[in-house]
Each structure stands twice: as structure tokens, then as C-alpha cells.
Amino acid sequence: MKFTYHYQKETTQQLKYFLKEQGISKGLLAKIKFQGGLILVNDKRENVLYSLRPNDRVTIVVPDEKEHETMLVDKTPIAIVYEDEHLLIVNKPAGVASIPAQYHPNGTMANRVKYYYKSKNYKDQVIHVVTRLDRDTTGLMLFAKHGFAHAQLDRQLRQKEVEKRYQALVSGNIDQLAGHGMITLPITRDLSSLLKRKVAKDGQVAQTEYWLLKHNANIALVDIKLHTGRTHQIRVHFSGIGSPLLGDDLYGGLMTAGITRQALHCYKLSFNHPFSGERLTFTLALPEDMTQVVQNI
What we know:
By secondary structure, this protein is an alpha+beta fold. The protein is 19% helix and 30% strand. The protein has helices spanning 15-21, 26-34, 109-120, 147-158, 233-240, 288-295; strands spanning 2-6, 13-14, 38-41, 44-45, 51-52, 57-61, 80-83, 87-92, 128-129, 138-144, 163-171, 180-184, 187-189, 197-199, 207-215, 219-226, 264-272, 279-283. Strands 7, 8, 9, 10, 11, 12, 15, 16, 17 and 18 form a 10-stranded mixed sheet that branches. The radius of gyration is 22 Å and the shape is elongated.
């Protein structure tokens, strides 16, 4: 894949520093150097010590990424929300993990995306997961279609430029939920379980902001924004304030409301396109199981 930049500074600059400013890491430079890529200045091959001059045109050719042969493929179709040459956004259903694990090497969204890439004969075959969702959480999931895009999106994640918004159905102590609130409770591992987390004084700082959208005496629909990214954060926080998610048996959720998985949906994803810089925003309606409950609130 080819990327072209125009050097517009009035003074000279060493090429390696200019490339760093474009988000090209040392690792990517090594891949370009040793795996068949190119660095060109005005269509002439140069090394990273070259001194750029005003109006120079810099082109990098990133080598194609061969598949990881150990990753299996799953032929289950994926629901594509958006796709271009750099990005893929899908609607993840409930009951599907994001990535393979030791004892579950197939059947995940990554396996399904790999089959999709292979069926399309894409040159880049490595699966780059940018935003994961828990197995039973539904909604928008972002993949980068090559390593350079992944690195650019990871930078946005670190700088909190990627916004993910969720909607959840909660039960229990509904009266204590304000119209708008912030849950600030530290989270740590629960040593009684391989999966479970818990609220504890010695845990990591965690903040969850929420807005109450609709409720009755027993169930509420809330809009959620994460300010930190702890494992199971939404589930742990709402359980911690006495309002666990419907269907979330791991954290004490009500199992008799017609939902038997945690009622959590990633409905909004917003970020800057890694190459055009355009702000992209995607939204997705609630899945049917959550919609049916909301209609009765």
C-alpha cells in the first residue's frame, strides 16, 4: 500500500523525523526496510537520513501483510456497517467473542473477518482488532485493515480521541439513578474467579458517566460514556451501585426480564479517519432483545 506526503516546511528536515511526525513508527520503518517496502523522495529511493527540502514529495510503500496461518477461518457472514481500504466496522452479535483464545480458537469475530478478507482476496491478510467487545455485548466493532492504520488508531485511543458510547438496561435500585451521573469506583480482579472483577479500594481508578434515558419502577435504559477502560467496567460499576445489567448473571443481573445475556450495546463510535483526518461517526440501533424490553418500560 502506497502513501504520499508533501513536505511543506521552509527549512530542511531529516526524513526519519518527518516520517515520525506522520505516525510512522520505528517498527513500521523496519518492516518497510526488510520486508520489501520502499521509501521514495521525488520518486527516487532514499534512506531515512536524507534531508528533505521544501516541496519534496515523500512516498512510502508498505509491504503487504501475509496471513497468520495459525488463525482459523469462520465462514459465518459478518454484518458490515462501513468499509474502505483502511477500515472495517462491523455489527457484532451477542454470543461471539472478539478474538480467539487458547481453548476457543475459532468462532470469533476475528475468525469471521479473516474469512471475509480471504474471500475478497485482499492483499493484507492480518487481522487488526482496534476496539473489542465482550462476548455477549453487541454493537459496533472497529478493525484496521493494515498495520499502519492500526498504529494510527491506537494513537487516537491513547489520546482519548476515539469515542465509544453504549446503551444498557439495568435493574435493581433504580430510584437512586440520577438523570445524569458519574460512577467513580476503583476496580480490581476478583481472585475467586478467572473472569470476574470487583470494586475494591486498592483497585485501579475507573470512571463511568451515564445519562438516564427511560425507566419504570424496575428497569432503566441508560446511555453510557467510559472515561477509563477497565475490564468489565460498565458491568462492575452498575452492579457496584446496586443496579446490575439485565441478564448479567456474573454480576447479579436480573434473569427474568427476557434477556439472558448482559443487556449492553455499543451504539456509537466516533474517531478521526487515520489518513484523511475526517471525523467519522457511526450509530447503530439497539438489537431486538433490548428493543423489546425498552418498548415495555
